[in-house]
Design a protein that fits this description.
The complex is a heterodimer of chains A (409) and B (284). With 409 residues, chain A is an alpha/beta fold. Chain A has two domains: 199 residues, Periplasmic binding protein-like II (D-Maltodextrin-Binding Protein, domain 2, 3-Layer(aba) Sandwich), CATH 3.40.190; 197 residues, 3-Layer(aba) Sandwich (D-Maltodextrin-Binding Protein, domain 2). Chain A has 17 helices and 14 strands. In chain A, the strands form four sheets. Chain A has a six-stranded mixed β-sheet with strand order 2-1-3-12-6-13. In chain A, a hairpin with a 2-residue loop joins β4 and β5. In chain A, α9 crosses α16 and α16 packs antiparallel against α17. Chain B is mainly alpha-helical and 284 residues long. Chain B has a single domain, classed as MetI-like (MetI-like fold, Orthogonal Bundle). Chain B is flat, with a radius of gyration of 24 Å. Classes of the chains: A alpha/beta (409), B mainly alpha (284). The interface between A and B is medium-sized, with 24 and 23 residues.
């Protein structure tokens, strides 16, 4: 404790000096770690410094909100940290700007076994056939449900719905007065609705863009059917009337308040639910899929990247090799580690987490298109249009598809 | 080297004027340049304007903007003037009420908007709770998610936010009207409504004219209330021009098209302001 304090003091005194010098000194690296994991980041840094006394790691706690823009500005100005955590959706766009260091040779040199990494997670860090970041965290949505409500509705709480038809039946049975069967997202940030509806399109063989990302496939029957399935929960009255203002947080609050019986989210919701309403008997299950087809889900997660303009790439690489060790990766992640060998750690063995882990096998990355933000906004506007009754799923999705096609030309 | 006396004053102002000109004209000119170029800086003529006008969203945005700003101004002026006249009357506790009435205007916009957003919420909102308890409505109303209620709800919040400012300005205007005028009118046999129409409103006209102009400018540029409460939704039912510009620039990173929108926006407001100023300048 004492040594830690004195080191912090020494650092604080040294800080103006470092800043005045304008660049990091040799043997010193700066790591931007989002605050939700920064405590663990500092522990890892301390452990690393013990093993490598000649390298100092400065953990800079950064706020996750707005981090994407902050990193973008840093990469463009060339005033970057030596190591940075990136959400997997930002990685390819950043790599496309040329701001990230290419890592294929480095990974070979460091002896990091890439075959141990979740392939979908590696895809989020691969641009133009080259690796630009090292995945460390991976997660996928699963279904969360209220076991007591299942029993009250005469359903078996131990065998949750597996197919779309079963999910509809359960949603109908669980809807009663102010209690709704299945909560869907239709408001808040666009990504909330993307993460909860796009998997259904994928499961059914549809999607927003075709494989080559040259045109939209929203107007194809498979996509329209899945959109109808998603929006149908509100049209049939099985989702709460507040659906158009519900994002992930609102759904969790509704679930905790006992207003919805089932919804989908990431495993981090389990912690909040247990804290706010410990009496709730929570069950988890894989996302229901169309009969005879596989489930699908969007891969969420984070990657480590070394900026091209980093001052101290050499030491950053040494530190990266340390972070990539399975036990360190498993310690640092908030959800699951990107390395499959780290999955054996005890913290991932909770049976409630099993469906989230199984869903990882079906996880895919969001399309890495330069216009993805605008495309997802168009799709979201279309979904909201259906939910407010502007037109049928077929009409709205055909219109959205033609808008997206116009953008892609 | 003698400088003629009449140039001395302007010379002292010159540096400040230069800085001001840079601050005003540089962004303006840069926006124009952006609006006719592509991201690589090549001249593309009116291509960006065409792209934006081709989007069906843009006509909806324009329509929403006029509805939002227009109705807001009408109700802000009516309510603000009425409250201003009331607060000018003498009654017990007047100064306390005068202080209270400015609260909505003083609260930071983002705080007010977020709070109103929660109050309007279908599930957790106090408005539905109270209306249902009082038996006014049977089922919860989705104030911000129903296409027919979202605009009235947002206009209500905007009126609530800005009417205190109108009331204070009207109050100041009222206090500048000499008491003798009312006395003289009463001697001539004027009734209360005569007094209000011929004296009060006549004298308030310049105040109301500048207020309308200010409210229009602020209303057209205001993004906080709508962005915090609905983000332009549901299905773009409440999107207004500043929000579309913001989205285009800072969410889609298409600065050139956003610049084209801004230029169109500037032209529209410019024309409106010129019409407004000439109409009122002639009457004064």
């Amino acid at each position: 404790m004492k040594t830690k304090t004195s080191r912090t003091c020494a650092l604080a005194t040294a800080l103006p000096l470092i800043m005045a010098a304008g660049h990091a000194m040799a043997g010193e690296i700066t790591w931007w770690a989002p605050e939700f994991g920064a405590d663990r980041a500092e522990e890892l840094a301390a452990k690393f410094e013990e093993q490598n006394p000649d390298i100092t790691v400065n953990v800079e706690r950064v706020v996750a909100n707005g981090l994407q823009n902050r990193v973008l500005v840093a990469l463009q100005s060339g005033n970057t940290p030596d190591l940075v955590d990136l959400a997997n959706g930002w990685t390819i766009p950043f790599a496309a700007t040329g701001g990230l260091m290419q890592m294929d040779d480095l990974v070979d040199e460091l002896g990091i076994d890439m075959s141990d990494f979740l392939p979908a997670a590696v895809n989020t860090a691969t641009y133009d056939g080259a690796l630009y970041a090292l995945p460390f965290r991976a997660e996928a949505h699963a279904m969360i449900y209220n076991k007591d409500m299942f029993e009250a509705a005469g359903l078996d709480a131990e065998s949750p719905p597996e197919t779309w038809a079963e999910l509809r039946e359960a949603a109908e049975a669980l809807t009663d007065g102010n209690q709704y069967g299945y909560g869907i997202a239709g408001g808040g940030e666009v990504s909330n609705t993307i993460f909860r509806s796009l998997p259904f399109l994928w499961m059914n063989g549809g999607g927003i863009l075709n494989e080559e990302m040259t045109e939209s496939i929203l107007d194809e029957p498979a996509s329209i059917e899945a959109v109808e399935f998603y929006t149908g929960f509100l049209e049939n009255g099985w989702a709460p009337p507040s659906t158009l203002e519900n994002d992930g947080t609102a759904l969790r609050r509704l679930f905790i308040a006992g207003s919805i019986a089932m919804y989908q989210s990431g495993q981090f919701d389990l912690v909040s639910i247990a804290e706010e309403n410990p009496d709730l008997d929570v069950g988890t299950a894989q996302l229901p899929h169309p009969d005879g087809k596989d489930p699908a889900v969007i891969l969420g997660g984070w990657n480590f990247a070394i900026p091209e303009a980093a001052e101290n790439k050499e030491d950053a690489a040494t530190f990266l090799a340390f972070l990539a060790e399975p036990e360190n990766m498993g310690f640092y992640t908030d959800t699951f580690p990107a390395r499959q060998s780290a999955m054996d750690m005890e913290r991932f063995q909770d049976p409630a987490l099993a469906p989230f882990r199984e869903m990882l096998e079906y996880a895919r990355q969001q399309p890495a298109n330069e216009n993805w933000v605008q495309i997802s906004q168009m799709y979201f506007d279309g979904i909201q249009g259906i939910l407010v009754g502007d037109g049928s799923a077929e009409e709205m999705m055909s219109e959205t598809a033609s808008q997206i096609d116009g953008l892609l030309q | 080297m003698r400088v003629s006396k009449r140039f001395v004053g302007p010379l002292f102002v010159l540096p400040a004027l230069f800085v001001l000109a840079m601050l005003v004209f540089y962004p303006l000119v840069y926006t124009f340049v952006l609006s006719v170029t592509d991201p690589a800086g090549n001249y593309v003529g009116l291509e960006n304007f065409r792209t934006m006008l081709d989007q069906r969203l843009t006509s909806r945005t324009l329509q929403n903007t006029f509805v939002y700003v227009g109705f807001s101004i009408v109700f802000q002026i009516i309510l603000g003037t009425a409250v201003g006249i009331l607060l000018n009357a003498k009654f017990w506790g007047r100064s306390g009420i005068r202080a209270l009435i400015v609260v909505p205007w003083v609260i930071p916009g983002i705080v007010a908007a977020t709070t109103w957003g929660w109050m309007f919420h279908t599930e957790f909102g106090i408005i539905n709770y109270m209306a249902q308890s009082a038996g006014v409505i049977d089922a919860p109303v989705g104030w911000l998610t129903n296409p027919s209620t979202v605009m009235p709800a947002l206009i209500t919040v905007n009126v609530w936010k800005m009417f205190p400012f109108v009331a204070i300005m009207v109050l100041a205007g009222l206090q500048a009207i000499p008491e003798d005028l009312y006395e003289a009118a009463r001697i001539d046999g004027a009734k209360l409504h005569h007094e209000i129409y011929f004296i009060t409103l006549r004298h308030l006209r310049p105040v109301l004219a500048s207020l309308t102009l200010l409210l229009a400018i602020w209303g057209l540029n205001a993004i906080t209330i709508i962005y915090a409460m609905t983000r332009g939704g549901p299905a773009n039912r409440s999107i207004i021009l500043p929000i579309q510009i913001f989205r285009q620039a800072f969410e889609f990173f298409q600065f050139n098209q956003a610049a084209a929108l801004s230029v169109m926006f500037l032209l529209i407001t410019g024309v409106l302001m010129v019409i407004y100023v000439t109409v009122f300048a002639e009457k004064e």
